Task: inverse folding
């Protein structure tokens, strides 16, 4: 058996081969392979990455034909930065890069290093997410951006790089469901709309928290009228329960909307 390669069997008796390498006092698993030849090639590729410093993030694929990209990034980071991280992270000066195959180089602040060292980023239908305690969470949620948010409308990237998730690069435009920032004279207002067989304008507000509460009140009125649509309720974190109740009470829903709800009962 080649160096670093171990024969093992699955529960059903099928044979496969595991491969690992020990460098810088760390035992690094390189993966599982169908044949001993594949496992041996993976070991040789890992050995080459550790020993040849001319190989880097730009050219490592020239020698990595069997070893996965994720494992190659882990090895390069371990070699260069003397830190083993099990996810495909490479430490930079002041930030880190997470290399997601098929997507590219995602950039994050070091404040997020512990989290992404322990949570693997996945992609489904163009959405990036992590599995956490059995639930799927979009990576934008860490910025207070909701799953329904639309790039360019609800949030944007200051430098135009949609793979740069450093905090200073994320611009949150609309935090709440049913609320959109719109031009209003020489400034902006937060416009609240609810969709029920067409859109109803609930109002325009100078504060997005008030606009979110207005949407919640419109949802409550719709439910009271017997409308069973699965509305998303806004969770307003900036107000205490007392402040929320005071604002909720003062909001007047438009007559046109209330007339429509009357006909639904």
Result:
């Amino acid at each position: 058996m080649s160096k670093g390669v171990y024969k093992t069997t699955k529960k059903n008796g099928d044979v496969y081969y595991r491969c690992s390498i020990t460098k810088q006092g760390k035992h690094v698993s390189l993966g599982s392979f169908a044949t001993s030849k594949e496992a041996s090639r993976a070991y040789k590729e890992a050995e080459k990455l550790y020993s040849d410093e001319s190989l880097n993030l730009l050219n490592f694929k020239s020698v990595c034909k069997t070893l996965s990209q994720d494992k190659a990034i882990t090895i390069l980071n371990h070699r260069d930065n003397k830190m083993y991280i099990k996810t495909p992270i490479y430490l930079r000066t002041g930030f880190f890069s997470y290399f997601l195959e098929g997507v590219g180089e995602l950039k994050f602040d070091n404040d997020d290093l512990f989290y992404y060292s322990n949570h693997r980023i996945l992609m489904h239908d163009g959405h990036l997410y992590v599995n956490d305690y059995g639930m799927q969470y979009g990576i934008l949620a860490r910025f207070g951006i909701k799953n329904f948010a639309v790039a360019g409308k609800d949030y944007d990237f200051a430098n135009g790089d949609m793979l740069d998730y450093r905090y200073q690069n994320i611009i949150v435009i609309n935090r709440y469901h049913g609320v959109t920032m719109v031009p209003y004279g020489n400034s902006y207002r937060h416009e609240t709309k609810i969709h029920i067989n067409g859109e109803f304008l609930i109002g325009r507000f100078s504060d997005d928290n008030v606009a979110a509460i207005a949407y919640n009140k419109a949802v409550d009125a719709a439910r009271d009228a017997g409308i069973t649509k699965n509305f998303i309720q806004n969770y307003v974190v900036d107000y205490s329960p007392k402040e929320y109740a005071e604002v909720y009470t003062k909001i007047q829903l438009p007559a046109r909307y209330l007339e429509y709800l009357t006909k639904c009962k």
